[in-house]
Design a protein that fits this description.
Elements (H helix, E strand, L loop, with lengths): L22 H11 L1 H7 L5 H7 L10 H30 L1 H20 L4 H14 L2 H12 L5 H5 L1 H19 L14 H5 L3 H21 L43 H5 L2 H29 L11 H30 L1 H10 L1 H18 L4 H17 L1 H12 L7 H32 L7 H17 L11
């Protein structure tokens, strides 16, 4: 190549070509990943009516929300308590056995939920579903193993799409298949359907988990056949000290043949905990916003909301799910390739500021106009669009968490730690922020806007943590 002194030095530096995605194995993992949002959210359309008809509240409908909230949160609570153990176990015995246990547990627990006739039976089935479902952390580990640093962001960008589609499909069949004898009496007129009117969506969800079980068993390949025996890798206690493995910096995958790093060592490592801390605070802000959107849209105008009908709210959320999936598919990977992971993440979390500020702005507009007019719908569209921009941050943080792993055999533990924190946020966040919303409106704190101020304060912490993330090199292996 002919060069002269005026030729830029970087112009002649060869760049590593992007590795093609392993489409078959990645497609299988994403298909199995559907079980997570479907199993978590299919009960939402009918859980309130189920509690009422089972007589759990003793005829006092004011208590329905209390019991429904417990059942809805139990999935995430038990998942938070067990996901680290499952992910850690997958570092030793392999990803595939843990996936199979989780899928079988989901299938059985979802079926039992549809056949439950008491409150405690409902509680037990949801606890089993959450406790056995350590799959999401394991599947992120698989994606990290079947990709490299040139195509990892492209693969992780598909996860928000799967969750958007799954979150749209789950309520659709959960509500549409409840009480099937009311809609298709010629097919579902037997005594079984009268006694268990909400069993059909549970059977569908259980069948999907069962199908995923067989697909995983037959077609999913274990990336690494070498696993460390658990007893062999336990830390030595001689002389009262544990051996401290060397921790690689963020962006270096470490030795593929090394043993899993002890959890205590990971918790003390700055380069490991910064991505996990970002992920946990991001999940808290996102779930808080997610819980406030339908609540704000449904709250009467005079109290501080928009007063939209359930149908209008459902259409908005469905439109967002579809639009968000398309946005992530078309934009996220390209943005990461163009600007880099750190810049995309830092920019995406900043979009939360106008996103949250639109709540009081929309309320002020509707107070002036006294109705939901074109201006409100423009603001709703803008808010949902910005929400899709914010969701790019999830694909990016998955990359940071994966590349912070000191070696390939610690991927399960890394994803387990991160998933534990997000499960805790998803279990506590909705109740916290919806209660704070009601408290703010009831006592007119800061004009009823205290909840938004608290959410913005948490967001400031996320912005601070995002600036601590390192730059990632694209050509690392």
């Amino acid at each position: 190549m002919a060069t002269n002194e005026n030729t830029p030095l970087l112009e002649n530096v060869p760049t590593k070509a992007k590795t093609p995605l392993p489409k078959t194995q990645l497609g299988l993992v994403l298909f199995v990943l559907f079980t997570e949002p479907m199993s978590a959210q299919f009960i939402f359309p009918f859980i309130n009516q189920l509690i009422r008809e089972l007589g759990i509240t003793g005829g006092d409908d004011r208590k329905i929300g209390y019991y429904a909230g417990i059942i809805e949160s139990l999935f995430f609570v038990t998942q938070a308590l067990t996901v680290l153990g499952w992910s850690r176990l997958s570092d030793y015995v392999g990803r595939k056995p843990v996936l199979l246990v989780g899928l079988m547990g989901l299938s059985i627990s979802n079926l039992c939920f549809g056949l439950s006739r008491t409150f405690w039976a409902l509680v037990a089935s949801r606890c089993i579903a959450g406790a056995l479902n350590g799959n999401i952390g394991v599947m992120k580990s698989i994606i990290g193993e079947i990709t490299d640093n040139t195509n990892m962001a492209q693969a992780f960008a598909l996860i928000p799409i799967i969750f958007s589609v799954g979150a749209s499909i789950a309520p659709l069949f959960g509500g549409g298949l409840a009480k099937p004898h009311d809609y298709w009496p010629e097919l579902f007129s037997g005594p079984f359907w009268m006694q268990y009117p909400y069993s059909l969506p549970c059977i569908v969800s259980a069948s999907f988990a069962g199908l995923s079980f067989f697909i995983t068993a037959l077609f999913l390949r274990e990336v690494s056949q070498r696993r460390i025996p658990i007893m062999q890798s336990l830390p030595s206690k001689r002389h009262g000290k544990e051996p401290q493995p060397e921790i690689a910096q963020v962006g270096t995958p470490g030795d593929k043949e090394a043993s899993p790093v002890p959890i205590r060592t990971l918790l003390k490592t700055y380069s490991v905990m910064i991505p996990i801390a970002n992920y946990s605070i991001l999940a808290l802000v996102d779930i808080g916003f997610f819980a406030l959107v339908p609540l704000f849209y449904a709250t009467p105008v005079e109290i501080g909301g928009l007063g939209l009908s359930p149908f209008a709210i459902g259409m908005c959320m469905t439109a967002f799910g579809i639009g968000n999936g398309l946005f992530q598919m078309l934009i996220t990977a390209r943005a990461i390739d163009r600007f880099g992971e750190r810049r995309v993440f830092c920019s995406a979390v900043l979009v939360f500021f106008p996103l949250i500020a639109m709540f009081p702005i929309m309320n002020w507009v509707i107070q002036v106009q006294k109705k939901v007019g074109p201006a409100i719908w423009v603001l709703i569209f803008a808010q949902l669009f910005l929400w899709a921009v914010v969701d790019m941050s999830f694909a990016v943080i998955f990359v940071f968490v994966t590349r912070a792993s000191p070696n390939k055999n610690s991927l399960g533990t890394m994803n387990g730690l991160s998933q534990t924190t997000t499960s805790i946020a998803r279990a506590m966040g909705p109740a916290t922020f919806t209660s704070l919303f009601a408290f703010s409106k009831e006592y007119n704190l800061l004009g009823g806007n205290l909840v938004y101020v608290v959410l913005l304060i948490v967001l400031c912490l996320l912005v601070f943590l995002s600036r601590r993330l390192p730059e990632l090199e694209k050509d690392e292996q």
